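Batch manifest, entry 17 of 40.
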Amino acid sequence: MAKKALEIRDKTIFDGIFFKYVLKFFFTVWFKVFGWKLTPIAPEGAGITIAAPHTSNWDIFYAMGAGILLDIKMYFSIKESWCRIPVVGSLILWMGGIPIDRSSKGKGQVDLIKEFVERHKGDRIFFLFTPEGTRGAVSKWKTGFYHVAKDCGLPIFLAQVDYRTKVSGVFHTYQLTDNKVADIQAIQASYKSVYGKVPETQYPPYSGPIPEISDREAAIMKAMYSFKEAATQAEIAAKTRFEELSIEMLDFLIEKGVLERVEGIEQSKATYRLTLAGNGCLLHLSPSLA
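Output type: structure tokens
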């Protein structure tokens, strides 16, 4: 007799009135006592959410705390075999487990997520992925989250648990382009400034906090992002609508490492573009660049 296919559970720990409000009270007190804060934004709708760096089990604790406090439903992928264990399986599904059947007849992860999102239009739903795949040291990310987002037509929510600033939550909603390499590079660059619980094992390696950027400098960086390629001083000034944009200001951004001069020996003929570090910094400065 064929086993009944398992689905994503509609009601989880994030929905029950008793547990939800008990946990909300608990995390409110915990965050206050230990000095933790939430990110300023909480995206609406559904998204594939990556949480990085993942170097400790405490990451899940603070990520769950942010989800509970912001009324977000969170789900994570797990082998279907775990979800079929008596009692344990029910608990996993109640905690937000997505039962993944790898067999040829099993319903795939993308189909499960698509059907669930269709049933819960408008709800805040985070499908959580840890791109390192482990708490230990790694040399690259697993990019399954990227393909799931692409196939489901969902944005990628960039979430952090930063132990230096004690901030947990989503800092950017990333809209995918047709360039996977550039997308992954930009996303990874943003995580170089997030301080993990065990920073010596995180990937990509921690490079320090993002530089202090003024509103005017942020406007220049957003203009540079919209060009996609290099742009001249005049083009940047026109895009930002600044009456005056000096070479000195552009040089200052070059010194900060977020901008680079691409070509042109003469300053008046030079073109500029964002560095990878600049792309990563901009994702922290802007909730969305769509």
